[in-house]
Each structure stands twice: as structure tokens, then as C-alpha cells.
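Appendix B. Extra example for self-study. Work through it before the problem class; the solution is given directly after the inputs so you can check yourself.
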Amino acid sequence: MKTEKTNIKAALTIATAALLGGNTVTHAETVSSNEDSNWEFDSAFLFYSEADRVSASEVILNAKKIFADDEILNLKLTIDALTGASANGAVAQPRVQTFTRPSGNGQYDIAPGDTPLDDTFHDTRVQLNGQWTQAVADNLTASGGVHISKEYDYLSLGVNGNVAIDFDRKNSTISLGFSHFQDTFTPEGGIPKPFASMLIGDSSAPTWDDEFAETRLGSEDDKTTTDLLLGFTQVINRRMITQFNYSYSMVDGYLTDPFKILSVVDDNGVAQDYVYESRPDSRAKQSIYAQSLYHFDTNVFDVSYRYMWDDWQITSHTIDSRFRIPLGDNFGRESYIQPHFRFYQQSAADFYQPFILNSEPLPAFASADYRIGEMTAFTIGLKYGMLVNHGHDLSFRLEYYRQTPTDAGFDEPGVLKKVDLYPTIDAVIAQVSYSF
Amino acid sequence: MKHSRAVTLTKCQDGHSLNFHAMASPCEVIIQSTDPQLAIKLGNIIASEVWRIEDKYSRYDQNSICSVINNSAGQTVNIDEETYLLLNFAEQCYQLSDGLFDITSGILRKVWRFDGSDKLPTSTQVAKYLSYVGWRKVKFDQQQITLADGMEIDFGGIGKEYAVDRAIILAKQLTNLPILINLGGDLAVTRARLNNAPWQVAIEHPDIDSTKSNIDNNSSTADMIISLTSGALATSGDARRYLLNKGKRYGHVLNAKTGWPIENAPRSITVVAPACIQAGILATMALLQGDNAEQFLSEQEIKFWSRR
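Solution. C-alpha cells for the complete assembly:
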């Protein structure tokens, strides 16, 4: 009986082949909703290199699985390797300068006129993110996730949750998000005392370790970050989608960079001392963000603007735009190019100062970290993507980034007029991504 | 209602959708490409092919080869290769189903009207029309076909599924991008979506699911989503077409040998197979097994979902 019945299927396959032509009858593959579908993977390799400074390589592996009722599990692994030199905060001088490494183990010299860079900067970061998203009601999607990131001297743990509510026939979506991070910083050499003078001298001397320890508060410190997000997405018409976000971020705890120092200069601009920086122990950031995506007949234009402000008096504007241009379906291989332009402008934190004048009283907080100083930056880039091997997406991205710190109106006494206090940073970003 | 023959293009999330009306059904082609020119070209090719098949094999169209054959009054009619291949396929199905699937059985519709009423035909009425049913009485070869006077053939059981398969062949010739072709619920895909993602296809909630080891009576009655990465899916049966007489339900699937409805057939069966015409025939053959519909498909190791 069984043999006879199995013959029906086989005989039908032959009959179908006779009707439609032999090679058209291939096979059927389905996954019913009570089984699991396959994993989807995205991988990317990114290389970032600043001229004479930091270079970073990053590998990202993203795995996504969609379950029966459209639940989505997303797992992401990111591994970064960072090497190179980073500005330590001190100003350039017309003479050789000597600095102690953050660990306290040894010193390094900086040539006259050069911006002091600490070249011991290297770290590897492993980051894992897990996110679960599912519909909890007809027009309500909820998502929750966990985050863990580990560096040699840093541990970050986080949780997040958000809900999205659709209405007006899913043309509008309101989303509410929350995330909380708990970070612990255990820098090599410990946490320096705010405004303590950098100990410089013979690090092999028997008294060195004790003297160095005098400049330290302890071995670790921590901070917490709480982010709240309110978003609104509106489908304007078949071609246009807009999105508006407001976010509020509260950071508490150790926000100082233990590797950054400031030069203490005299009235001639000559460095007399180097002191560790000091930042407030809280920061409240807010931002508004608007994005619009417009589909032309074939091209897609994506432009966004963000305005950020915080209680450190930093404000920033970011304009980001992408234009996706399909190159058509050549030989069944769809490809596109996507130019990218980004502009960024930032005002300085109220406690930012490029150096400290020894003739003036010490402020409550000070940092010469160029990243919280006044600056403009832009990125221009091009991405080329194509579909290879049965629709796997392969793309290449090449971008140029230039950051130009600017003078927020600080007087430059004496020798400081002759050195570059605000060196520009040029970087190249190259990325290869592959989805499979 | 007569639908105009037009193809409309709609942009969807990551591709284009083309809609038209054919074979008394809404039809949709989805291509995962951002190129609207390619989508329009594809839509026109597929709609033309489906309309061509409809014109050629519809029994409602007086100019179709089907009508010419049915109105031949015992005369021999010349046929082309495509018609021969379809008749040959129908012959295979007749033999494989042991005579239960018979494209000459459509004439029984004249006594059976499955309009939800309680009006059963009399045995005499059924017997009268049954004498016009019987594939064995049809003579055909590669050039011609001869039907006895009064007999009719009907491609309704395979025409739409055949059109899906033909459309898939033409779509694959145009591009290797992912395409789904859905002609009124009978559908097939050219391949998985980009990044190997499956196509998500909704079917009416099944009572019995061959892919599940046991039947979950507590499951929701919502439509079920089937993820399709290759092949085709077809549904046979129509839950809305039946007669109810003295508490007994008469489904619209007729036994071509007796002229009476198959007893205890599922209301509908959805089957997955490499080609749409295979899926459709397997679903129909299963319905013709009545009580044993699910067992029939299980023994064939075929994935299916049935509604009872």
C-alpha cells in the first residue's frame, strides 16, 4: 500500500516535468510557523585610521533569527582592537617635553612643536548585545535587550527595553525606550587625583612607586547611564517617512578621563606642570533628532539632523545625509552606490580649557580633552554594494573624516602663539560588509 | 463583474508589487528589487502569460480552445502541443487517482449547485449527467481530441496552478532576483528572499498540520504564516461551497465515479510541492480521499495543512 502511494508523488513529478519542462521542477522548501527559520548573518570588518594617531580594527558579527510569530532574536558580537597614540591633553611646547605613562611605568618624550600624544594606547574590546523583539498586541511591539562590553580596563553592563505603538493603520508609530548601563573603570595605574601633578622623574627609583601612589585615589571607579527615548515615526506618503526623537540621558559617577592631563603654563606660555583633569560627576544630555527618508522612483535620499545640548554647556549640530543610487540589475546582479556626507559642529564644555594659567586660581573642573572642546567635523564617503551568490549582500565603504578643533576664544600667551593648540585630525574609514 | 486587464505597480518595503486580475482572482507578483522598470517589465510578462492561458483554457470564454472542444458535438478538434501536454497531464492525474480526478466531471455542476441550501439533486438527475462523465471515453493524441457529444472538459482544476508554474519559468528567465507569484492563493516563489530570508505566506487557520507531530487544539484560530524559501503552495477546496440536507453536509468535491460528493472530505487542503500544479493536484487528490485525506498526504510524506 505504502509503495503504491509513494509512487503517486514520484509519478506526478514525472508528469509535471513532462508538462513544464524537465529542469523546472526542483524542490520545495518550507518552514511552517511552528518550526524555526534559519539564522541570518551580517558580518563587517571595519578599519579606522587617524593620521599619526589611533587606528582601530573592528569585526562585527550579527546573527538574527525570526521565529514563528515574528519574534526576533538578535545577537551581535563586536570585537575592536585599538592601537596608536592619543592626545594626552597637554599643549605643544618649543622644547622637548617628558610625560609619565598612565600606568606609572616609564616615561615618553615629545619633540618640540609636536602635540603631546601618548602612544601606549592599545586595547581590545569585546562586546555582546542580545535583543528580543516581539509583538505583544496587534499594534504594540515590545523589545528588551542586554549588553555586556569588556575591555582590559573597562566593564560595561546594560539593559534596555522599549515599546512601539502603531496607530492610524500603522502609518504612525510612537516608541518609548529606556536603557541603563553600569560601567566600571579599572585603569592601569589607578584613578588619578583631580588636579594632582603628574609625577615625572626616575621611575626606577625606589621611592617612585610610593610617590606615584600619592597621586592616585584608588584602583577603580564607576558610572551609571540612564537613557530615555521618545520617538515618533510618521509615514507621510508612499515615498516619504519621517521620524522625530527626543532623548534624555543622565550620566552619574566617574566621568573624568584618567589618561588626560592639562598643561599649567606661566605668563609666557611655558609649561610649569602637568595636572590630571577633573570633570563634574554628572552630566545630563538631551537631544532632538529628525530624520526623513524619501524614495524617488529609484533613488533613496536619507537626511537627518540632530541637536544635542547638555548641562556641561556643550551643544552640537549633526547633519547626516545618504543618497542611494541603484545601478540597475546587470546580469541579475543588483548593485548600488551610496554617497554619504556628514557635518558636525560642537561648542565647548564650560570647563574646557586648552591649558591652565598658573597666575589664575584653579577652577573647580577643567579638561583639555579636544573631544569636549569646540570643533567642526565632516565625513565624506562612498559605499558600493552589490548582491552576489544568490542575493548575499556585499558592500564596500570608504570614508574620509576630518575633525577641526577650533579656538573658543582663549588667549595664547607667549610661546603658545607659535605652536598649534588645535591640530586637525584626519582619518580614513574602510569597511567591508557581507550578509549571508 | 468584468475586470479590466491592467497591471498596477506598488512600491513595497524592499521591492515592488504588481497587481492584476485574472481567472476570477486577484493576482499579485512581488519582486524584491528596487528597480521599478524591471518590476513593470516582469508584471507585464507575467500578466500577459496568465491572461493568455485564461483566454485559451477558460470554459466561460466562447473563443477558448476549451469551449471549441466542448461545443464540438462529437467532432474531432485539432489541438496544439500545449493543449496536448495539459491533456496528457490530466490523463496522468486520472490514472494516479484511480479515476477520482476527472476533467470531464465538470458537467455535474449542472445538477449540483453548492449554494449553501438544502437542495439535493435526485439520483435520476445525477445518473443522467454521470453518463457524460468519463475520461476513458475521450480520445486524444498529439494532434487532436474527440469528445462524445454532450461531454465537456474543464481545465479549472489545473489551469490556475499551471499558470503559476508558467509564470515562474518566465520570471526566472528575466531575472534571478526573488519573486513571488500569487494567483488567487495558488502561489510559487523563484527562490528565497535576499539574505536567504523566507517568503511569509498567510493561509487560513488549519485544523491539522502535517508539520506538527500532534494537534494542538488550544492554538489560536488566526491565520497561519508559512515560510516558503522555494517551491509552490496550492489550496484545494472551498469551505463556502456546500449543501446541508437533514444535518448532513455535502461538500463541493464530487466523486467522478458516482457523481455524488465525497463524504467527510476536509473543507480545504493546502499542500506544498516543487511545482504549483503538483501541489494543486495533490491537494485535490487528497480531498477525493474523504476521511483519509490527511492519511493519504502523510503517507506521501507531503507537507500539508487541512481545514475540516
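Self-check: Residues 36-57 of chain B form the longest helix (22 residues). If your reasoning did not lead you there, revisit section 3.
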